[in-house]
Automatic annotation (TrEMBL):
It comes from the Bacteria. Pfam families: Hemerythrin. Residues 3-133 form the Hemerythrin-like domain. It comes from Dyella japonica A8. This is Hemerythrin. InterPro entries: Hemerythrin-like. Gene3D superfamilies: nmb1532 protein domain like (1.20.120.520).
Length: 136
């Protein structure tokens, strides 16, 4: 299975998270509009990535004749549902600049939790899942 697209999207996502981090460090209140634009942009890319994983990657892994690959695919797919829901709830709470500007520390705190989990997930996929997908 060719997973170059998934790998490239992970790189793009980490670049986008870096850009968001820079905006936050420059001042949450001052850059609330740009932060919202970055979140909305990232969310579109994340939704497309997750949809491709659900339609292509996970079914291919689960259908593998290798029990380790099939089980790993199932586990990653189940775990992703929770993280995706957490991320989408985060974006729903913070998709208005005034909400971010009114509670910059609340935004920072929640963003740190959500993006740490997202980063951890990307690393796990890169290190554990994608090498297995390369074998399918």
């Amino acid at each position: 299975m060719n997973i170059d697209r998934f790998k490239r999207e992970h790189v793009d996502l980490m670049v986008a998270v870096g850009a968001l981090r820079e905006l936050v460090q420059a001042g949450v209140r001052e850059h609330a509009d740009s932060i919202v634009q970055q979140l909305v942009s990232m969310s579109g890319a994340i939704r497309l990535h997750l949809a491709a994983e659900d339609r292509v990657l996970y079914p291919a892994l689960v259908a593998s004749s290798d029990p380790l690959i099939a089980q790993t695919g199932r586990v990653f797919q189940e775990e992703m549902g929770g993280l995706a829901a957490t991320y989408m709830a985060f974006v729903s709470r913070w998709n208005i600049a005034s909400a971010i500007a009114d509670d910059p520390q609340g935004f920072r705190d929640e963003a740190n939790v959500v993006f740490k989990a997202l980063h951890h997930r990307v690393q796990r996929e890169n290190q554990e899942l994608y090498p297995l997908a390369d074998r399918v």
